Amino acid sequence: MRNTLTALGLILSIASFQSSFAKARTPFRATQLRRSSFQTQDIMKLKPEAVRSHQAESLSSLVNVDKDNNKTTCKSFEDHRSTLLDMMDLSYHVAKLQGNSDALKEASDKLNQGQGQKYRKKVETYEGKLKKSTRVMNTHLQKLSDEGWDLSVFEGETGSAVTGYVNDDRGFIAYHPELNKFMIVFHGSRSTKDWDANFDGKLVSADSLGLNLPGLSVHRGFGNAVKSCQTNYKDALNRYIGKLKDSGHNLKETEFFVSGHSQGAALASIAFADLASNFGRQIYGDDYDNSVSNNFKSYIVSTPRAFSVDSVDALHDLVGKDNMIRQNVWADLVPHASLKKVGQVLSYVGDVLNPFAQKKLKGTALQGMMENGQDFLTGLKSYSGYASAGHLALDNTSETLGRKVKTDLNALWQRSKTQGVVKGVKSFTSGITKTLLAPIHYGSTEKGGCGFDQNVVSQDTNKLLSQGSAWRKIQNKAKKSLPGMGTLKKLKSFFTS
Asked: Choosing a second label site near 195 at 20 to 30 A (CA), which of 160, 161, 394, 441?
């Protein structure tokens, strides 16, 4: 296991990271959770007035629905929504830190083995990236520390059975001792191995993966990722809960928010089912019912579907539908995409249009989608049958683009101008599609890459819940798409059927 991140306030050096990441990483089943640099010095010192204020507050569900089906979010969520989004962003920086450190170690090993001076350039590149990711992450950590949060990273694995698995920092637990609240946050896709997990999309029973969720069928890749870190995130929670009980807090009034973006949202939804049922019974007793007690809540953003159609009602009964919000932009295909259709496209390209493509897919998770013991179309049935869960908070496409596209296009133009005419034109034309599409998945290309940007995410959740309800009514009545969105509607229809 890698060493603990250094104490808050110290500047993390490249040398220290090279040293810690050079150590062999043990399998997740044997690991102990490492603590982040973000550690409250005396978690036991609680402000009595803060405790009294919280004890006077009864827990409500995440979404309150009145008799006219109007939906509003609870005050606790409203108070901490921006913090949840900050933590989603931080989860990616934690993952980037790991990725840059691993890449630096690999390049350094190659260089030390005399495999060519090209690795010297890679070492310099990853040293720069590591410095940047460390600086950005420490900024986040300082802000959250000032607000009173204590963080602990939990490890797991990522990958697929076809391509193999590697250790990965799946996310972190954040605990606020004065507010008596937990946030469990998973990071989204950041590596090739994460994409292998994304495409390992056969529907399987959760119990077959060891998740102990009877009656639920889940995306195999996402389910395996949750199983790989299940013991670790529960161990972290138990350590905090031990301190919580000693502090005089009432555990029955503790809130747990489970969150993530994109793949991280899918993992969060499965982990939420596990926590709200299995962990809830562990700490509250065998008769615990989260749909009544409302201790566990899930707010997920731009999530792929993780559960089968036949599982959704059982999931809602298990956790309480009113404790789940999924938020996404209308034009985002990720929350709707069917891997069955993706597999058909890949098969056609690989087998008919370009036999070379099939050769390139060998040994990848995409090849795993195309392999089966029966005929191909029969095999692909296991990749279909997904459904969304929880209340839909639906964001408007044009409004979302308006929040970021102008800034991102300007940044792309400024970067392109520094590269000369030929390279600049090529850079601009190749980057414009990504720049236009990124905000639809709550991302941004302003800084040159393409990653999650919490500033693109609308925080008017009540408005989005209303729009989500209206859209569901349109779907139920089988009405035509909104004006001007015909082409996109056809795309969504193809990929989601």
From this structure: 394
